[in-house]
Amino acid sequence: MSDSKSCRKSWVAQHIAELPRSGIRDFFELVNTMDDVISLGIGEPDFATPWHIRDAAIYALHSGYTCYTSNLGDLRLRKAICAYAKENFGVSYRPEQECIVTVGVSEGLDILLRAVLNPGDEVLYHEPCYVSYAPTIRMTHAVPVPVRTEAKNDFVVDVADLEAKVTPRTRVLLLNYPNNPTGAGLDWAAKESLAAFACRHDLLVISDEIYEEVNYAKRTPSLAGLPGMKDRTVLLNGMSKAFAMTGFRIGYACGPAAIIEAMMKVHQYSMLCASSIAQAAALEALQHGADERDAMCKEYMQRRNVMVKRLNDMGLTCFMPCGAFYAFPSIVSSGLDSTTFAKRLLQEKRVAVVPGPAFGASGEGHVRCAYATAMGDIERAMARIKEFLQELKSA
Amino acid sequence: MDNESLKREVVALLRRNARMSDQEIADRLGSTAGTIAGLIQELERDGVLMGYTAIVNDQSDNGEVRAIIEVEVRPERDTGFDIVAERLAKFPEVQSVYLVSGRYDLRLEVAGHSLQEIASFVSGKLAPQDGVKSTATYFLLKKYKEAGVQFSKDEKHERLKIVP
To answer: Which of A375, A377, A380 best probes binding to B when mutated, by most B CB atoms within 10 angstroms?
Structure first.
């Protein structure tokens, strides 16, 4: 026997060690080594936060509003969120019990999953999707169950595919429309059939609606507003995309009181509360930010029109996104796989796009191009991609 | 989009950037360059689009002096302020003329080569006009924002190059 205690092989918990690194990570590091890159890989607004919102944050600092707030979030902000949800999403919530302010939707999703999942429970969600879904589910010791969505269905999840994957252990249906990375949205009929599916299998629906206001289609009420859905739906949203406030880190969840209470427990012990200064800014945005929100949305829509036209014209078939600020063209006609396409485009033409498989295996054959970028950069990037394709063909 | 809403969008885009090409306007609005060119012609013919100008940051000493002049006017029966306003608008030194609410009536913006030139415009041409009761002249010292464009740029913050 040796005197010195032997070291464990690894200090890292097994389920964390088993989590894959984000597919975006390696690509990000490659991009960072290069200059003169036009990036279409940025999933955040390129606008600075509207001035009146920044001014509200400055005023909060100035007047000493720098203390903890209620765990649920400042009640004035929760009241504003509920009024905003009623006006914009067509659902009524009580600010005292049915709403919690989180540190972005990322934290909202994390504490919600921790609040409702037991080890071994299954969560149905559609792919391609935001990169955090599967890892966040795994961190609760639950099981992520992805369902493919396809370009031929405009990336709307097919209820028949959900039916094929549902089991007695399925507890949650996680939806994200308008969708990152595809830009897909749900019309009223799709919402109704998803609601019926959730009721049929007694599932909790988590609706990540962070892009709801960046919406170019006819707006319909939130899934939570359908008959029988309010008691089984938690709506997640936040300030980041609609009000160009990513760095403020303010999100919110609205849903049944018992779930909000459970989320509050997790939030209270892990986060305590969201930044008071950022909450003051969020209050200003919700109460007085509609004009600038809508102006930014209009600008995104015009950029979408330009980008999607250019992509289709050069043979990268692209469905017309109805929300968010992403185009998700097929790159199959190039003869390359998504990752090779993205790497070579970056190395040969200095344009960064995100390979589709970063958002799940079903993203293969696509790349994500964000149009939350100045129009001049979009035009330059599109010209470079066109050159890239021409050089591929003549090679 | 019907023609009227398309025209509104075209005007909104030109207000932001009058040099935007017909093609870019068309691509942004999902139309064609030909249609946009036609609409712009109509807007010009109908007197909605009256001209195009540049926003210039000319803080350097370029031999131009600008002043805001408040003018109190005695309105006339039937025509009110219009006759005086239109007469003042004819002077080439006068860059803009607005009828405003408040304690004076007309607000002029005047450009000249020197303080003296503007002073003599005021004393020699403006003040003696029939109907002009009084004037107050404010020389512009520094420009911070014009036509919606702020002259000092915010410090540029580097965004992450890839964000999921």
So the answer is: A375
